Amino acid sequence: MNQFLRTVTAVSTLAAVSLFGSAARADETVTIEGVHICCKGCAVAIEKAVAKTADDKEHPAEVKCAVDGDAGKVELVAADTAAIQAAVDQIAAAGFHGELSSKEVKWPKAKAPKGKVKSLEVTAVHNCCGACTKAIKAALAECDGVTADTCKPKEESFVIEGDFEAKAALKALHKAGFHASLPEKK
C-alpha cells in the first residue's frame, strides 16, 4: 500500500509540474553579433543602455544582458519580444549595432537622404575611446566617396565628408558595430 501511495503521489506531482510548467512562458533570447566592443567602456555603455528598459515609466521591462567583448556579442533575455525590442532600441540610442538573431526584433532606422551627399552629420555614435574612433574611421574609409570625417575620441557626433551615398556610410558604420542617428531637422 505504501508503494501504491508513493506511485500515485509521484504521478500527481509530475502531472502538476507538467500542467503548470506548460502554462509558464519561456523567456525570449536574442543575440546580437558583430557589435563593436573594444573595451570595458563599451561593455558598460551597453549594460547601462539595457538597464534603461527597467526605468521606462510607460513600459518597464526587465531584460537580462550578457556582453561578450571578445566575441563582439550581446545576449538579451526577457519575458517577451517587446521587452527585447525596447532593449535593442536603447542599445541603438547608445550608438551600438550588430546582427540580430531574431526576425521580429528590428533596429531603428535613420532616414538617410537619397542619392549622393557632400556631407552628412551623424549623432549618437558610441565613441568612448581612441580604439572606437579608429574603428569608426576605418569603417568610413571603406565607403566609396568618403574623403574625410571630423570624428574625434569621446565625441558622439561628427561630420562625414566627400561625395558618397548617405545610406552606404550608415551601412558601413552598422557593419563595424556602430549605430548612428541623424539630427532632426528643425
Cα end-to-end separation:
82 Å
Low-confidence stretches: 1-24
DSSP E strands, number: 7
| Rg value | 22 Å
Largest sheet: 4 strands, antiparallel
Please state the overall shape, judged from the principal axes of the Cα atoms: globular
Strand content: 15-25%
Overall average pLDDT: 87
Number of helices: 5
Report the structural category.
alpha+beta
Q: Within the largest sheet, what's the order of strands?
A: 2-3-1-4
The amount of helix comes to 25-40%
Series of secondary-structure elements, N-terminal to C-terminal: HEHEEHEEHEEH
Set down the secondary structure blueprint.
Elements (H helix, E strand, L loop, with lengths): L1 H22 L4 E6 L6 H16 L7 E6 L4 E6 L2 H13 L5 E2 L15 E7 L7 H12 L4 E4 L8 E8 H10 L11
Antiparallel strand pairs: 1-3, 1-4, 2-3, 5-7, 6-7
Helix pairs in contact: 2-3
Offer a concise description of the structure.
This protein is an alpha+beta fold.
How would you describe this structure to a colleague?
The protein is α+β, with helices and mostly antiparallel strands. It is built from 5 helices and 7 strands. The strands form 2 sheets. The chain has a 4-stranded antiparallel β-sheet with strand order 2-3-1-4, covered by helices on one side. A hairpin with an 8-residue loop joins strand 6 (146-149) and strand 7 (158-165). Helix 2 (40-55) packs across helix 3. The model is unreliable at 1-24 (pLDDT under 50).
Task: Provide tags for this entry.
single chain; 186 residues; alpha+beta; four-stranded antiparallel sheet; three-stranded antiparallel sheet; 7 strands; 21% strand; disordered N terminus
